[in-house]
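User: Run a structure prediction on this.
Assistant: Running it now.
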Amino acid sequence: MIDETVAEIRAMRTHSTSAVAVKATRALAELLDREYVTVDEFERDLEHNAGVLRRSNPSHAALHNAMRDVERSIIGEPTSVEDAKQLLQETIDRVADDIETAKGEAAANAAERIEDGDTLLVHDYSTTVLESIENAARDGAHLTVYVTEARPRTLGRKTARVLAGMPRVDVHMVVDSAMGYALRDCDRVLLGITCITGGTYYNRIGTFPVVVTARELEVPVTAVGSGAKTIEEFRFENEFRDAVEVMREPVEDVEIENPSYDATPIGMIDTVITDDGVVE
């Protein structure tokens, strides 16, 4: 389970950073079926596997925090292997539940800022953004949502399909380069969060031009996500994906760069909403 989860995270087959953190936490349950002679042996194995999972995506603050939380909650606490396994199971359940709860509370806080008749622009794929919109629509708001295609992985298409299934949500999809066209009709940009650290907001590639264009057109930008994605003393590492996502056939003397994330100064974001509240 752990090896498969690491491979899935590295391949970015799970598109939500919160879902990645939950999946990694749940994967540690594999240790419950292993045999250990001593508590020290169990703790060394836990530290090793939590570290492997944490390093599988060094850009995900929620993943980093989840693995650290598990380690801090267990290392040095149990007096027997049986106690260690019981504590691990309890910790896995708590950490996973905390992540889901925080995400839900952040979405609820964001939904309160969405008004009936609003036109929003969203980028890429964020389960917290989708839940925010779903909550607002369920509460009776009629919304128009523009979705950028989010090249090269076109995850905006997945977002559009989910939004299309929500009542009272009118969905429009545009290519990334048409964001300026769409933003002229928008009341707000609503984005997810990969990580906020050191005064920089990190999110999927394409976020920075969306933010810059929105500011030029005086459209407020809101970022929503769990508070676990805001982290101090964290070295964010961008990921560069396969060039074939950009161009299927290689071209001689052309180096194709395919970064996964954009870095945006946090001061360019008008509002940050987490489970802890709202920061303007």
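The first strand starts at residue 119 and ends at 122.
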